[in-house]
Write a structure and sequence with these properties.
Chain lengths: 332, 332
Amino acid sequence: MATLKDVADLAGVSVKTVSNVVNGYDFVKPENRRRVEDALTATGYRPNVGARNLRRGRTGFIALVVPELSIPYFGELAGGIIAAAQRHDWSVLIEQTLGARDRERDAVGALGPHMVDGAIVSPQAIEAADLAGMAPRVPVVLLGEHPLALPLDHVGIDNVDAAYTAVRHLLDIGRRRIAAIGQHPTRGTATQRLAGYRQALTEAGLAVRPELVAPALRYHYSDGAEAMARLLELPEPPDAVFCFNDMLALGAIRAAADGGHQVPDDVAIVGFDNAELSAYSLPSLTTIAPDKAALARAAVDLVHRRAGISEQFAPEEVRIPFTLEIRESTTA
Amino acid sequence: MATLKDVADLAGVSVKTVSNVVNGYDFVKPENRRRVEDALTATGYRPNVGARNLRRGRTGFIALVVPELSIPYFGELAGGIIAAAQRHDWSVLIEQTLGARDRERDAVGALGPHMVDGAIVSPQAIEAADLAGMAPRVPVVLLGEHPLALPLDHVGIDNVDAAYTAVRHLLDIGRRRIAAIGQHPTRGTATQRLAGYRQALTEAGLAVRPELVAPALRYHYSDGAEAMARLLELPEPPDAVFCFNDMLALGAIRAAADGGHQVPDDVAIVGFDNAELSAYSLPSLTTIAPDKAALARAAVDLVHRRAGISEQFAPEEVRIPFTLEIRESTTA
DNA sequence: ATGAAAGCGCTAACAT
DNA sequence: ATGTTAGCGCTTTCAT
C-alpha cells in the first residue's frame, strides 16, 4: 500500500507538496502538480483515513443509533441520514438497540470521541438516569423521541399537533367513536400523540373512552392487528382508529378485513410516518407525513455544528414540518 | 481526554505498563497493576481506537454496501448483518449506492484497508470491468448478486431454483398465462430468475411469450404497479404473475385492484424476498423466502475468515436455503 | 517486569 | 511555492 512518502519519492518532491495536491491546496507549481498526479496514479495511492483523522483529531464517522433497521420508517430515515452525512464527509455507523434500554445505554456509552465525531440517537426506552452519569463525550442529537430531562439537542415534529391533526381529520369526516392504538408506558412520542388525540376529542365535545385506547409494545404489524381485533370485539366498536405508526395501521387494516369490516366505510384508519408503502397498500393509508429528508438533514447538520470547534450554544429544539396525506383509508 | 501517557504519569509508571494493563497482558507487578487501575478510573481513560488501529493495522469496521436502506429487504438484511457483525466485535458502516454503477464503483473503490477490515457488497449494476483495475484491498463478499467474472466470495440463494419453484407453484394451482415482472438488463439475479421462469414454463409445455415478460428499472412499488397495469391491458391478460421482488408484487396487487381485477381469482401473484409486510398485506403475499438471518451470518463469517491472517483459500460460493411461503395471493 | 524510543501515515507549523 | 519536522495516541521491539 502506497504512502504519501512513496508518492513523494517517486515524484521527486516532498510529502508536503503531495499532501497539498491531495488536499486540493491551490498553490502548487503546475510542473510539480503534474508529476505528483502521475505518481499518484502510478502508485494507486489511497489516503490512510485513520492516520489523517488521528492527526486532524476527527474520526470521519458518526453513529446512528436506532431501534431496528427492519422497521421501514427507520430504514428510510437511515437512508436519508447517510445521504446527508455524505455532504459532511461523514460515514455512518449504524447500531441497533431493538428498543432495549440496556442496549441503548451501551450504544450511547460506547460513543467515545475516538470512535465517532458525533451521534444521532432515536431513543426508545432510555431515561435521563441512564445518561446522567456519562456526560456525552461527543455531540449527541436526539431524533424523534426526547424522553430525557437532559439538555440535549432534539430534532422532531410536533407530535401533539400531528396527532391532533390526524384525529381532527377523522372528526371532520364524521367519525365519533375514535380509537387509538399505540399507547406505551415509556415512549415519549406515544404520550404526546395520546395528548393530541385527547385534545382533539375533548375540543369536539367527545369523551375519551379508556376502552378505546389500546396499548402496543413493539409497533409492529402484529401488534396493530391484535389491538384492532380486540377493539372490533367491543360491544360498540370504533368507527375510526388513529394508529401511532404505519405498521400498526397496516396491521389494523388487515385485522379489520379479517373480521369482515370495511375500511373506511365501517372503520376509518389513520397512520403515522408515511412509509413509502402506505401509498400502495389496499386501501392506501391516510397518514401523518413528517418531512423525513428534512429530519435527516437537520439532525446531521446539528451534529456538524456541535462537532465544529466553534463556541458552545444552548441545546436546540428543531421542529420539522409535517403534512397529513389523505388516502383511501379515510375517504370512501 | 486522557491519554495513555496521562495515565502513566498519574500512576508513576511508563506507558508500556499502562498499555500492558489495558490490553490484558498478564505479567504486571500487582502493586503496579493496582496503581494503574486506579489511575485508569481516576482519569476515565478511553483508548483512542483510531490510534490503536493505525498501529495494529485493523479498523474494527466492516462496510455494508447496499442500493437503498429504504427498500424493506435491504433494511431487514442490514439489521441481520449488524447483529452478526457484533459477534466479531465489528461495527458496521453502511454505504448507499442507489444501484448506480458509478456510486457502486466509488463505494468499493474507497474501501481502503484503512477504512474497513472487509466489506459486504450487494451489487446491482457494477460489472467485472469496474473491479478489474482495482484489486480489492480488503476482503469483499458479494451478497445476492454476483454479476462479476471476478473470483470473489459469494453468498446467496439459488435464484434459478427459487424462481422455478415460484412459477411451478403457479402452474400447480392451474394457471397457464403466467407473466413475469422484473426483467432487467444488468442485474444477474433478474437473469437467473427469468431463467427459472422459462424453465418451469418450458417444462410444462408452455411457450414463453415475450409480451408477458415485463421489465422493471428500480424494483419499487410504482414499477410493479405500472408493469401490471400494462399487462392487464393486453388482449389476453395473464392469469398469474411472478414478480422478482415483493415491492413489485405489492405494486402489482395494487394495480390489479385499481383495474378491477381480483387477486388471486383473476390473477394470482407471487413475490420474492418475503418482506415482513407480505404476511400482512391484503391479500397477503405468496413469496419466496430466503433465510435472511442465515444470509447475513454467512456473509459476515466469510468476511471474518478472509480477514483472518490465516492462509488463503479459494473463493467460496455459499448457498443459503429458501422456502416458498404460500399465502392468499395465490390461494383463493 | 518495565522503561525508552521508534514509528504507523498523515497534517500543519515553521522555515526557506 | 515547497521542504523539514514535530507530533496525533498507540503498540511494540529492544534494552535493562
